Amino acid sequence: MKGSDIKALLQRSGKKQVALAAHMGVSPFVISRLVNSDRELTPSEAAQVEAFFDLRAPVAERTSIRVPVYGYAAAGDDDRVAMASDQILDHIELPAGLLRGDVIAIRVVGDSMEPRLFSGETVVVSLNVTPTRFGDCVVELKDGTGLVKQYRGRRDGYIFLWQYNPEKEIRLLETDIKAIHAATMRR
């Protein structure tokens, strides 16, 4: 979904940009810029827009959910996954009763999480659900990429993550992070 697609959704629904901005927790200026651009929405932005416009059928009506799979390695970094909507590798069908909220899937790139997660393995991710400590997560960065790591916590403006191969702690500034999503299952 592109920012320009939102303009048509607003016109069809009669809803206002101000209401969308409030729903997404951003200023109306940010929505105005987005609506007038051809920029691809990130997975979390697309999920928020879909929820605002109620584009998904109620769970009771669905027996399965079609989930987008991201997994192209981001340019210049073997460990990051490109998370723009034009970077979808595939879609998988998952039983609707197993999932809560908005979900995506990530195909693990690289060997930094081995032996916990292997390159090519798919993890299902609940968007905007904070992972438990020592749980697997996807950290969505503001540059449009994501990292699959183990969540260790948050302190003094930093997010602490762990990777297994080689074993090391990773510290990211919270200001560089768009969202943290819990990895809820492997597939």
Number of strands: 10
Please bin the fraction of helical residues.
Answer: 10-25%
Backbone shape: globular
The number of helical runs is 4
Write down the secondary-structure element order: HHHHEEEEEEEEEE
Span between termini? 25 Å
Low-pLDDT runs of 5+ residues are: none
**How would a textbook summarize the main sheet?**
10 strands, mixed
Query: Radius of gyration in whole Å, from Cα?
Result: 17 Å
**Mean pLDDT over the full residue set:** 85
- Bin the strand percentage: 35-45%
Which structural class best describes the helix and strand composition?
alpha+beta
Helix and strand arrangement:
Layout: H1 3-13, H2 17-24, H3 28-35, H4 43-52, E1 64-70, E2 80-82, E3 88-95, E4 103-107, E5 122-126, E6 136-141, E7 145-155, E8 158-164, E9 167-173, E10 177-186
Helix pairs in contact: 2-3
Walkthrough of the structure:
With 187 residues, the protein is of the alpha+beta class. Helix content is 20%, strand content 37%. The protein contains four helices and ten strands, in the order H-H-H-H-E-E-E-E-E-E-E-E-E-E. The chain has helices at 3-13, 17-24, 28-35, 43-52; strands spanning 64-70, 80-82, 88-95, 103-107, 122-126, 136-141, 145-155, 158-164, 167-173, 177-186. Strands 1, 2, 3, 4, 5, 6, 7, 8, 9 and 10 form a ten-stranded mixed sheet that branches. Helix 2 (17-24) crosses helix 3 (28-35). The model has no long low-confidence stretch (mean pLDDT 85).
